From TrEMBL:
Belongs to the bacterial sugar transferase family. This is Sugar transferase. PANTHER family: COLANIC BIOSYNTHESIS UDP-GLUCOSE LIPID CARRIER TRANSFERASE, QUINOVOSAMINEPHOSPHOTRANSFERAE-RELATED. The chain crosses the membrane at residues 12-31. The keyword Transit peptide does not apply. It holds the Pfam family Bac_transf. The lineage of its organism: Bacteria, Pseudomonadati, Pseudomonadota, Gammaproteobacteria, Oceanospirillales.
Amino acid sequence: MIKRLLDVLASFFGLLILAPFFALIAIWIKLDSAGPVFFRQNRVGRFGVPFKIHKFRTMRLDAEKSGRLTVGADSRITRSGHFLRKTKIDELPQLIDVLMGRMSLVGPRPEVQEFIDCYPIDVREKVLSVRPGITDKASIEMVDENEILAKYNDSRQAYIDIILPIKQSYYLEYVDSKSLCLDLKLIFLTLKKIITR
């Protein structure tokens, strides 16, 4: 109950304060490349219910035709997209999803169905028992995930075999020890990571 109250208050006032900044980012994206301001993609939410996530668009319109994963210096990323991704500003529109109750400020990152299907059943059920979040320990520790994947010829398989198990361990750790104090700590560590980058 307290977690949801924090989510609602933080997302509402966050969107209110950031509205002028969002407008500037929207203009930059539109001037930089053709297409919508937001990137909407189906993700798996709490209890396996799908939803469309909000992110600032950082890639060309036809980007997903070449695969879902972003690897290294991906040529599909726009000029504005490089900055938005590096600073994690592209994730801020997810405050809309938090306000609407589909996400939380902190929680396991929402995956696409393709990769959720790779989870062991018991892990999947546990991870999906909570709302997915904008940030979590995996987001902080694996902030350069695309550079890691760039080292492998088959980035999709590397994600499934190497990255996903690590993320799952972080997700399970969060579900087992979730608390308001832990959420506040992870929010602080996320901001610290972004600023130091």
